[in-house]
């Protein structure tokens, strides 16, 4: 173990030196992203560790999530912390502009919201020196060497909630080059709450102490109501009235290419081109990750001859007045879909323009963020995307289940596989996985033609949600209180 620790410290010194030397290039890249609209035009300097708000007096807990989905996951436990410990200040950070635009409206009053610092020595050092958090609670897979080691050197308690890593990441982490560094980083945590049993095994194989690994359940099960504005509620209600007498289904969180064609579960998906070992970019705006220097996702061309749109055409033959709601993962993708459809002579309504569903309009494209859980209430059927290519890893199906939708998904669900399995274990009807376009067409035809089957699947999804969501926040709070707050605030 001493040899492993020494190797880990050496690896970290190399990482720190490389990241220090790369700071000028990273700063230029940050400015380039700002010009492209990928960073906040006014608050981008927060990414360099420069604050835009004052630090209040008293103890402070820092919650960090990379993007929108992880940030939404953190909100219920933030609310519980504020309820149980009103004497403690809460700081929330994310890295993406899309997360900022939505989460800043959802956080409870009193939470400080900043963009997270880049994992460079200067940015992390400036951030920690100013905010001086008593504890840092990271969400899912945010393992940053400068942040974790810097926090440890400053006596800051560390926790990792909903801890996960992909199979690809685990293979790289467990290799001889990175294992010493990963082992050293994990030794600095006081609490790791894995997403599933398999994830717990991964962390133990990466030499995390079994004494800090605790189970609570997936925080994504903690779907809660947000206070919507009067305008948001009125807009949703108007859309509900427009859909009242029409058949409707939704394809949500779809990625580029998923509106076109579905791969069979055994087919080869989009390709990943790996660069070196310190950067990663995904389908959302790129984020730093010490695994890769560069990862380029090969996009599928936007050809609207389609899976979701192909299924839509088949369904309109059965139900001419049917409405298909498309909710792309990227709002810009939604605008592109609408433009291409309009060029082809299709009548399309666009959410961002508050366009109404007129007679003859059968496609409603949602090119906005933060409304998905409200929109699920308007449809009896939800096909959750990010799951139809082998290069993707699924999205949260639980919001659709909470709304009482019949839930369908592809079979490339990545770290959401435990969610699918747990729901199906409770009730096999709660979520249906389809392997291709023909299976998706067949499933939707059955649901639209048999009201009893549709109702059975909707009830099964709702019941699975209720069973799995009970007590999640209380369990997580109990673990944080015992293993983090009692240590950080003593």
From TrEMBL:
Ranges for domain 3-deoxy-D-manno-octulosonic-acid transferase N-terminal: 43-222
Q: What Gene Ontology molecular function terms does this protein carry? A: Kdo transferase activity
Q: Which keywords does this Swiss-Prot/TrEMBL entry list? A: Transferase
Q: Which GO terms describe its biological process?
A: lipid A biosynthetic process
What's its EC? Answer: 2.4.99.12
The UniProt entry, under InterPro entries, shows: Glycos_transf_N, Glycos_transf_N_sf, Kdotransferase
Q: Which PANTHER family match?
A: 3-DEOXY-D-MANNO-OCTULOSONIC ACID TRANSFERASE, MITOCHONDRIAL-RELATED, 3-DEOXY-MANNO-OCTULOSONATE CYTIDYLYLTRANSFERASE
Its name, as the record gives it, is lipid IVA 3-deoxy-D-manno-octulosonic acid transferase
Q: Quick one: which gene encodes this?
A: KDTA
Which of the seven top EC classes does this enzyme belong to?
transferase
Which reaction does this enzyme catalyse, per its entry? lipid IVA (E. coli) + CMP-3-deoxy-beta-D-manno-octulosonate = alpha-Kdo-(2->6)-lipid IVA (E. coli) + CMP + H(+)
Q: Which domain of life is it from?
A: Eukaryota
Protein family (similarity comment) = Belongs to the glycosyltransferase group 1 family. Glycosyltransferase 30 subfamily.
Site, Transition state stabilizer: residue positions:
140, 220
Q: Does the keyword Transmembrane apply?
A: no
Which source organism? Answer: Quercus suber (Cork oak)
């Amino acid at each position: 173990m001493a040899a492993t620790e020494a190797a880990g410290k050496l690896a970290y010194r190399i990482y720190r030196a490389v990241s220090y030397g790369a700071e000028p290039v990273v700063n230029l890249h940050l400015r380039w992203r700002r010009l492209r609209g990928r960073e906040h035009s006014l608050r981008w300097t927060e990414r360099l560790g420069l604050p835009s708000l004052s630090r209040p007096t008293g103890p402070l807990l820092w919650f960090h999530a990379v993007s929108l989905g992880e940030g939404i996951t953190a909100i219920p436990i933030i609310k519980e912390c504020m309820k149980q410990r009103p004497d403690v200040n809460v700081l929330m950070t994310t890295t993406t502009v899309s997360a900022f635009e939505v989460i800043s409206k959802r956080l409870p009053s009193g939470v400080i919201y900043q963009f997270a610092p880049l994992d460079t020595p200067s940015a992390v050092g400036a951030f920690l020196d100013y905010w001086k958090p008593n504890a840092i609670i990271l969400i899912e897979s945010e393992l940053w060497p400068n942040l974790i080691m810097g926090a440890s050197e400053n006596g800051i308690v560390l926790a990792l909630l909903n801890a996960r890593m992909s199979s690809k990441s685990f293979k790289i982490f467990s290799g001889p080059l990175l294992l010493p560094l990963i082992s050293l980083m994990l030794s600095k945590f006081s609490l790791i709450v894995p997403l599933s049993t398999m994830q717990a095994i991964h962390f133990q194989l990466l030499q995390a102490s079994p004494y800090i690994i605790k189970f609570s359940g997936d925080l994504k099960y903690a779907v809660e109501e947000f206070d919507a504005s009067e305008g948001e509620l009125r807009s949703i209600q108007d859309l509900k009235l427009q859909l009242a007498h029409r058949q409707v289904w939704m394809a949500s969180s779809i990625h580029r290419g998923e509106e076109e064609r579905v791969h069979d579960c055994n087919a080869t998906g989009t390709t990943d081109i790996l660069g070196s070992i310190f950067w990663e970019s995904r389908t959302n705006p790129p984020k730093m990750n010490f695994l890769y220097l560069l990862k380029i996702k090969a996009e599928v061309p936007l050809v609207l001859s389609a899976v979701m749109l192909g299924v839509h055409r088949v369904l309109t033959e059965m139900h001419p007045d049917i409405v298909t709601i498309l909710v792309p993962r990227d709002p810009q993708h939604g605008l592109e879909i609408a433009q291409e459809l309009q060029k082809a002579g299709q009548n399309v309504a666009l959410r961002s323009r508050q366009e109404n569903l007129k007679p003859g309009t059968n496609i409603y494209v949602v090119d906005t963020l933060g409304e998905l859980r409200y929109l699920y209430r308007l449809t009896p059927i939800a096909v959750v995307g990010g799951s139809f290519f082998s290069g993707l890893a699924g999205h949260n199906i639980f919001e659709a289940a909470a709304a009482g939708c019949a839930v369908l998904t592809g079979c490339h669900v990545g770290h959401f596989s435990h969610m699918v399995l747990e729901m199906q274990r409770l009730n096999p009807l709660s979520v249906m996985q389809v392997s291709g376009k023909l299976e998706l067409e067949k499933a939707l035809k059955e649901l639209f033609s048999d009201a009893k089957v549709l109702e059975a699947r909707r009830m099964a999804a709702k019941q699975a949600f209720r069973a799995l969501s009970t007590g999640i926040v209380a369990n997580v709070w109990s673990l944080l209180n015992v293993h983090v707050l009692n240590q950080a605030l003593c």
